[in-house]
Amino acid sequence: MLRTVLANLRAHVGRLAATTLAVVFGVAFVVGTVVFADTARQGYADAYARSAINVDVSVLPADTGETPALLPAASLAAVRRLPDVAAADGRMVARLALLNRDGRPVTNLGRVGYGIAVDGDARLRPYDVDGRTPGPGEALLDTDSAERLGYRVGDTIVVVDPEGVRHRFAVVGLLDFGVDQRFSGQSVVGLPAAVLATLTGVDGYEELAIEAREGVDPDRLAAAVSAQLGPGVQVVTGEQRRSALIAEAARWLDGFRVFLLLFGVVALVVAAFVIYNTFAVLAAMRVRQTALLRCLGAKRGQIFRATLLEAAIVGLVGGAAGILLGIGVAFGLVALLVGQLDVDLAVGAAVVGPAPVVAGLVLGLAVTVVSAVVPAVRATRTSPLAALRDQPTGPTGRRRRVLRAVLAGLVGVVGIAATILGVGESDPNTGAVLIVLGGVVTFLAVLVASPLFIGALCTVIGAVPARLFGTPARLATANARANPGRTAITTATLMIGIGLMSVFSVVLSSLSTTAARQIAGQFPVDVIATGLRYGDIDPALPAGYADALRARPEFSAVAQVRAVSATVDGTEVRVGAVDPGSLGALVTPSISEGTLAELRPGTAIVATSRTRLGATPVGATLSVVGSQSTLDVRIAASAVALAPGAANLDLLVVWSDLESLAGDAPDIAVLAKTAPGVSAAQSLAALDELADEFPLVSAGSVADLRSDLESTVNGILAVVAGLLAITVVISLFGIANTLALSVVERTRESATIRALGLTRGQLRATLILEALVMAAVGALVGLTYGLVYGAILSGKALAGWDPVVVVPWAWFAGIVVLVAVTAALAAVLPARRAARASIVAALVDT
Prior knowledge:
- By secondary structure, the chain is of the alpha+beta class.
- Helix content is 57%, strand content 15%.
- Helix 21 (760-797) packs antiparallel against helix 23 (828-836).
């Protein structure tokens, strides 16, 4: 039997090529994910090992769960006095605002960047310096900010201290932090420690880095440092500190790897359908061969094992090739993340350990063998007498169809019930999970039932081509519906890939549109100005900024949002108010319960997105203790967001109540509407002029906010589409493989219709149109499923935000066109082979 299996493989290499490729792509995705994660993790390890090569001991403030206190200069002096210490340096870091070339502060999510001390021991630096150590009037700038803002060595930069005073420095070098996530996206200015302390008021270090003398054990030195400094500090070895930094930097990799592996599982499932279909067709084609083997004494067990052995060889070959391709997939994932999501990665040589190699071989073997079990069992049922007669393949019996319908119905009821429960669930997160589970089960019911409706669907879809292309189209439709089980398995692969892609596209498009509408509703303004954030509390804007903005002719309306800190039952909260002329006009809270009209003196609107007050129902009464008075307020409404530019607000009260609570409260946000006829460039120029007088203000346009949101969503959608594209590719291999095997299976049938007058071109057109019909069926079912469940999931996931369900018709049309073109291309080779066959030779019974 082994010789028979090997002979079959040699004789039918071409027939199994597409199946092997399906295994290759499925395994490559999984292996590539593991290799990517291991390579990225090793890149982080190498980067941190390089940046702290001489650090043997690290001292950190004690972890108290609150903002840690700084280590005083006396601690550094005490460490330096230890005899086993070769060098010690303090890492001084403080928030420091950098201005761009237009004189406006550089921020990230409203927060200013950092200043760091760079005149310490060069051997203990956690960064690389391209240049020299700065002296008085000089500074270093991080490479990312220099590139983004257009600064070079020799240029002059301007920083602003917390009092609003500008300070100029000449750039004498660039800082490179590699993959260190601490300063990711933030501007970093390197200054002498004394200058940094003067500008920011920082009076200590966030970390002490220590190098041991030669021959001193780091653990022994750590114990000595701990004894020297006493309680209140954390003392760890350099290796422990590097491991903690690597774990923190690579923390996102674990979740992202699981995310990618889910797509890998989908790819393997799709590959399993292709493998099953291939061996099912091969089993049907080899009925006579199998029957002859039975006549020669082969037992059922031998036939079963021979089929599985053939599958195992295909799986091992595909798994081995998938491992090699997986390395390329890993670097493709790097390009996808860096190009679409701007993720910082330190990637060197690929790290291919034993785990991905073993996993690739095991997955290739397991998926292929398991998928071939059912065809192998069917092959064992072949009677020896089958060698004497034809074995037509056709629809299954009535009883089997009834059982399939009942099973699909039961599974569908479970899926729909879970979906309905999810829609009715009050908690959006729980509801979304139930909907996803319900969607998976419902899709399984669709796959189970597909052989029952696939024939009718082929007839409907093929009706238009039949009118346009005549006989080839009618034959294509008849061929597609002749064996509904086989067609269902072939199209199921496309249903899965396109269905998932459609769900994601509907959800992300709905998210983007809903967010844009929320921005337009809450921000019917063009400019939002806030103070520079040095911490988590919304900072106060400079006095007079709102009046200065009102005095500019470029703006027709200006709104002020004020806030103060207060307490409710001992819990600190933030209470805000909007000036009376702007509330309901320029500023409209996103009300989820109640109405804005109910906000009157003695009432408040509570933010549902804040948790400091816990569950505060509408109608409850709270006692708010301010700096000047205590105010009892009744909760009149709740809102997802209370005011733009003030994300930390817990309560919104009327203007007069805020004044009585805390007196003359500061502005934390100022919003402005541009005057009619004023362009975006003119309004930005006006803001630049105000920046000269008010440097501690971060002002930006709402249009930029919308653009950033759209760009982010499009980037995520591109990543998801790229990840799911592999399932579509495997699906197309399945279509090509099914057609190629069908060409061999229908050799006599094709010869007969050729003899009856069908031309070579018409036969080629028949097979290409058959591929298009199957692709259209898969795309239609997948898109319909994606539209339904994408809309349901969007409505629940965005509950509370007045969701707008958006169907990206252009995206759907693009998917259909792409699938149609690639399906037609996949059918070209099988069609050419069928057309080249000789009529006489094909009619000879071999």
